[in-house]
Every structure is written in C-alpha cells, then in structure tokens.
Amino acid sequence: MPLYDNISETQLDAFREIGTIGAGNGATALSQLMGRKIGMSVPAISVLPFSQVPDAVGGAEKLVAGIFTTVGGPAPCNILFMFPVECAKTLAGHLMDRKYGKDEALDEVGMSALAEVGNIVSGAYLNSLASFTNLEFVPSVPALAIDMAGAILNTVLARIGIAGDHALLMETVFSEIEGNVSGHFFLLPEADSLEKIMEAIGVKG
Length: 205
Hints:
The chain is of the alpha+beta class and 205 residues long.
C-alpha cells in the first residue's frame, strides 16, 4: 500500500492531533465512570506493517488482553486495543474498585469492565476522527480475548482478511493510576479507507 510508504510527518501530525483530542475525551469519560481523575496521553504515533504489531507490544508470545472492534461507514476500518495483562487487570480493578492479585486471572466481571474501557477509548478516538473528517464511523460491540499477542493478531487477520496490510499505532498511556499502565491502540483501515480519511482531513503529504 504505497500511501503508507509515503505518509508524511504532516499527515502523522494530523493523526497525532486527532489522537490527543480523543485521549482527552476518553480520559473525561473514564474519570466520570471511575469517579476519580484519569489522564490519558498519546506520546507516540507511527505506521507499521501488520507483521510488526506483536513486536510493538512486547513480542508474539507476550500475554495480552486484546479488544477488537469493527467499524463500518464510508471508510471502514478495525480497531485493536492491546494491553499487557498486568495493565488490563489494573484498569479493570480501578473500574470495579478492587485489586487483582499477581497470579489472579481476570474473571467474567473484570473482562466485562475491561471491554467497557476499550469501548470508551475506541469511541472517544472515533468521535475525534469523525469531527475532523465529517465521516460517520459506526463501531460494533467489542470482542475481548486474553492470549499471546501473535495469536490475537492471527485471529484479527483471519477476520479482516487482506483488506489492509498496515496499522496506525497510537501508544496510549493512562496516568493518575499507580504503576505503569499503558496500552497500544491500532487503527487498521481497510482497502482505500486511509486515503478517504486523509482526503476528508484535507492534509496532503
């Protein structure tokens, strides 16, 4: 996909601004839900081939929580939000006002809480993208799994096929929470969707 190979710093800056606004809106929504101040930031943004997604989150064998959402509309895409399991348990625990032990697995309630976090953050990013592009983005109910990063990526690729071959990565850091809580937000546009989004933003390379 040549457009990815030729994406400019100006275009990345546009997505960085979209991510920053989305993170701010997501932080506000999470703060209201948790009843305490939560900060979110996007310290880095990049474009990478699907094959490098596992490396970005710590390797193919890294145990992660993956939240996958399909997005319909004139520029269909997919969202994959991945957290190290330790971070996932911290976020879910804060939402439920409890703490998970080091060797304690996320239970059904915790999984539901984590899915809600992913839903809120994905919705915030999509709303920001929609406000910049005037395009409609219609997300599905998110699917959540805990597995090795490589296995989750293979499942995602099997679902979306060869519609695209690159991902836009927005590193996402949650603050005001003890420990180092961060996740990786991947936007996976389908064929021609990135070009439509760029045209709608009005940013040329």
